[in-house]
Amino acid sequence: RGGGGGGRGGGGGKRSKPSKPSSRVDELAERWAVGSDGDGTFDEALVVDVYGRFLAGGRSGRGRSADLSRLELSGYLERYLWPHFDGESASWEHVMSIVVMLNAKFGEGVDGWAVLRAERARFDAFFGRALGLPSERAEMPWLERAEWVRFLVRAFGSLEEEMVRVQALKLASLPMWLTLSERDAASRLKAQPALSRPWKFVKKRRTKEAALPSGPPLSSQREESFLPSLLRQTVEALALADERARGAATEDGVGGVDDEAEGGGGGGG
Fold it and tell me: pTM of the full predicted structure?
């Protein structure tokens, strides 16, 4: 207790107390400072380890925030994650680490897209991998899913960024109407007749793609169902959260009645 009291009494002078996490991050930062020279020292296993120790969705609170800030200050995204990202071979943790670090930059008011802007082909590959993060994992914890959704919100809020706009607007285009019933699609076409010709083209293309041995390519599948599926999942998640909240409230209510009954009995005695 004496040590704790001293920490509080020290005020601002003691705020840099968590030396253990800091030393670990500083030690690791030497690795990606070397890796940034392009001398072949990149280690995907290190990215996986850093994600599990500092960024994973199972961690929250001040400890994670402090580690995240230190990683951001060390240039983890600019010096290691992004220069060594490969859309074909990058691990799930590598893609998710970029998502988390970008969110951290934007959260501090820094333009995260600036780091990625010079590598257009790499960004396109990253964005495609980022969209598929949930499907690459059998189960994605809520905190990780929240980071993923934050990234999507930021992307759709950054349509002035040309490289982002090109990728994001593909997910909010006419092919989404393929998820509508014929009746609903016809109703919308009647209200917007100028879309009739593009709509015929979309349906014709989908028919051709469906006949391919491997079926429609992933990009076409996402144009059609990514946003509708995301909205559906969001509604389901909100319903589940509401159900759990109601269940917890009911349990608290029952507990309260029992406590009152016990309290009343004790008073009567």
Answer: 0.78
